């Protein structure tokens, strides 16, 4: 996965667009902050996704965090493997640890999200 | 500016994630909370606990003075004995939970980092009329805990006298590596082990040597999950100035009949109070974790609150502690916990959740 081709939400989700299907995952920075992931609660296939709204949650030993949809649309796929092994999110955040796929409505657009460079600037600020 | 322990540089250079805890910049984890937790349960871990306050109390009236400010009996301590106690205000609620060490010619109080200045002020305020000296050595000394089933084996190698000869909750002055130390058979993890206090300048050398002997560095993250499994209260969570020791299940450390102490009058009416609440263990049936502040319900009515909750690495399920009205505290009572807007089924279970196997 070329990280430069992904777009990033301030809430640490990454988004990757292929046609009108947007794959969503969590950034390595976010999963490193969480550590010790216990489980990931994902929605059902067919549920609507609303940009900026929570579609699930990720729970670690220390804390629980919401997962936010980067785009509007319909959730057409969820990563079933995470139920058995939620640590996939930590091990391969940009690969086997993806979360959901959203079928975008209308003409898909990720322009509201951050570039890799801008996202890295943001996490540098978050770290201080 | 946060306070730094003598090991702060070591922590930063060895991958620790640091957090503010009680005014100190402390390691929360080095690798992972679960790894470090398992190391302590199965092998042995080492913790920098230099943030804990170390207050020495001496003088002819030291014992009499501590009898007044502590809820537990200090007069019956033998030399070298250590005892858990609460310090209460006049209202009978908890200012701090502490360990009192009786040394040869003085007492040592080990107090919570977040309460150190409060307790120093409290002691200064109440020492009028007593011939006592108070010496806060927190910033001159470091403190380390070695905990786990293999801890005593290692402790025996480093102390001038065999550490495993110390009985549980006893202490002594001795030599540790090349340094004077106070060594105690105490801890906050539910495992066997020791805690020791040594001068700042000797701490890092001892720490590095101990790690090379096989101890895994452990942060405050697993200290919290370990103490929670062991059912031990953490100040600011299970106990605070709104909580009294009797409802917290710490009545065994309150000697109502043997002595006078600050807070006794207020506590004497508590047992007959029909509205009393009590600390309980809580197990949820699902996977979601009840966190601090989650509300507890019984038959649809709000009845209490969670004070600590986590995923238990030992039992691989969520565990929590909270307060319920005494009439609902019976084991197996079915309750509900509101976890982020959803009511999850839960039940009252005994604490401690974890007891170490006796060998």
Spell out the blueprint of helices and strands.
The complex is a heterodimer of chains A (128) and B (359).
Chain A: E1 7-8, E2 13-18, E3 21-26, H1 28-34, E4 37-41, E5 48-49, E6 54-60, E7 64-68, E8 73-78, H2 81-84, H3 88-91, E9 100-104, H4 116-126
Antiparallel strand pairs in A: 1-2, 2-3, 3-9, 4-6, 5-8, 6-7, 8-9
Chain B: H1 8-13, E1 17-21, E2 24-29, H2 33-42, E3 45-48, E4 53-58, H3 62-69, E5 82-88, E6 94-102, E7 107-111, H4 116-126, E8 133-136, E9 141-147, H5 151-158, E10 171-176, E11 179-184, E12 193-199, H6 200-212, E13 216-218, H7 220-229, H8 264-268, E14 277-284, E15 295-298, E16 301-312, E17 317-325, E18 334-339, E19 342-349
Parallel strand pairs in B: 3-13
Antiparallel strand pairs in B: 1-2, 3-9, 4-7, 4-8, 5-6, 6-7, 9-12, 10-11, 11-12, 14-17, 14-19, 15-16, 15-18, 16-17, 18-19
Helix pairs in contact in B: 2-7
Outline the structure in words:
- The complex is a heterodimer of chains A (128) and B (359).
- With 128 residues, chain A is of the alpha+beta class.
- Helices cover 20% and strands 34% of the residues of chain A.
- Chain A contains four helices and nine strands.
- Chain A has helices at residues 28-34, 81-84, 88-91, 116-126, and strands spanning 7-8, 13-18, 21-26, 37-41, 48-49, 54-60, 64-68, 73-78, 100-104.
- In chain A, the strands form two sheets. In chain A, strands 1-2-3-9-8-5 form a six-stranded antiparallel sheet. Chain A has a three-stranded antiparallel sheet with strand order 4-6-7, with no helix packed on it.
- In chain A, a hairpin with a 3-residue loop joins β6 and β7 (64-68).
- The longest helix of chain A is centred in the last third of the chain and has 11 residues, at 116-126.
- Chain B is globular, with a radius of gyration of 20 Å.
- By secondary structure, chain B is an alpha+beta fold.
- Chain B contains eight helices and 19 strands.
- Chain B has helices at 8-13, 33-42, 62-69, 116-126, 151-158, 200-212, 220-229, 264-268, and strands at residues 17-21, 24-29, 45-48, 53-58, 82-88, 94-102, 107-111, 133-136, 141-147, 171-176, 179-184, 193-199, 216-218, 277-284, 295-298, 301-312, 317-325, 334-339, 342-349.
- The longest helix of chain B is centred in the middle third of the chain and has 13 residues, at 200-212.
- Classes of the chains: A alpha+beta (128), B alpha+beta (359).
- The A-B interface holds A 35-36, 38-39, 41, 57, 59-64 and B 28-29, 32-34, 221, 225, 287-289, 291, 310-311, 313, 340.
């Amino acid at each position: 996965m070329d990280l430069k081709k992904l777009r990033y939400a301030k809430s640490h989700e990454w988004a990757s667009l292929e046609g009108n299907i947007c794959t969503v995952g969590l950034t390595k920075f976010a999963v490193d902050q969480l550590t010790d992931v216990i489980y990931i609660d994902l929605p059902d296939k067919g549920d609507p996704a609303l940009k900026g709204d929570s579609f699930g949650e990720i729970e670690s030993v220390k804390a629980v965090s919401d997962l936010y949809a980067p785009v509007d649309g319909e959730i057409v796929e969820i990563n079933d493997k995470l139920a058995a092994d939620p640590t996939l999110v930590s091990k391969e955040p940009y690969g086997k640890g993806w979360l959901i796929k959203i079928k975008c409505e209308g003409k898909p657009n990720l322009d509201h999200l951050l570039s890799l460079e801008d996202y890295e600037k943001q996490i540098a600020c978050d770290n201080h | 500016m946060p306070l730094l322990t003598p090991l702060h540089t070591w922590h930063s250079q060895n991958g620790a994630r640091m957090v503010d805890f009680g005014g100190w910049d402390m390691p929360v984890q080095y690798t992972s909370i679960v790894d470090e937790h398992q190391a302590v349960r199965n092998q042995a871990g080492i913790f920098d606990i230099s943030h804990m306050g170390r207050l020495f109390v001496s003088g002819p009236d030291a014992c009499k003075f501590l009898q007044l400010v502590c809820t537990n009996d200090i007069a019956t301590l033998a030399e070298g004995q250590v005892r858990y106690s609460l310090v209460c205000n006049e209202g009978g609620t908890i200012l701090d939970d502490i360990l009192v060490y009786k040394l040869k010619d003085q007492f040592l109080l080990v107090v919570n980092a977040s309460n150190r200045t409060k307790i120093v002020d409290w002691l200064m305020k109440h020492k009028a009329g007593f011939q006592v000296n108070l010496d806060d050595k927190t910033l001159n000394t470091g403190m380390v805990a070695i905990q786990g089933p293999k801890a005593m084996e290692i402790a025996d190698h480093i102390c001038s006298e065999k550490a495993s000869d110390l009985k549980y909750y006893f202490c002594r002055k001795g030599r540790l590596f090349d340094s004077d130390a106070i060594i105690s058979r105490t801890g906050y993890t539910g495992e066997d082990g020791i805690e020791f206090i040594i001068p700042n300048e000797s701490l890092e050398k001892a720490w590095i040597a101990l790690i090379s002997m096989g101890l895994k560095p452990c942060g405050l993250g697993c200290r919290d999950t370990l103490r929670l499994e062991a059912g031990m209260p953490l100040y600011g969570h299970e106990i605070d100035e709104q909580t009294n020791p009797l409802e917290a299940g710490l009545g065994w450390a309150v000697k109502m009949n043997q002595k006078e102490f600050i807070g006794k009058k207020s506590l004497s009416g508590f047992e007959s109070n029909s509205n009393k609440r009590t600390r309980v263990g809580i197990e949820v049936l699902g996977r979601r974790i009840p966190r601090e502040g989650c509300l507890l319900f019984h038959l649809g009515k709000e009845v209490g609150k969670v004070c600590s909750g986590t995923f238990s690495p030992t039992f691989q399920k969520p565990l929590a502690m909270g307060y319920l009205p005494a009439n609902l505290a019976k084991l197996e009572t079915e309750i509900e916990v509101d976890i982020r807007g959803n009511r999850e089924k839960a039940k009252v279970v005994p604490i401690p959740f974890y007891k170490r196997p006796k060998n």
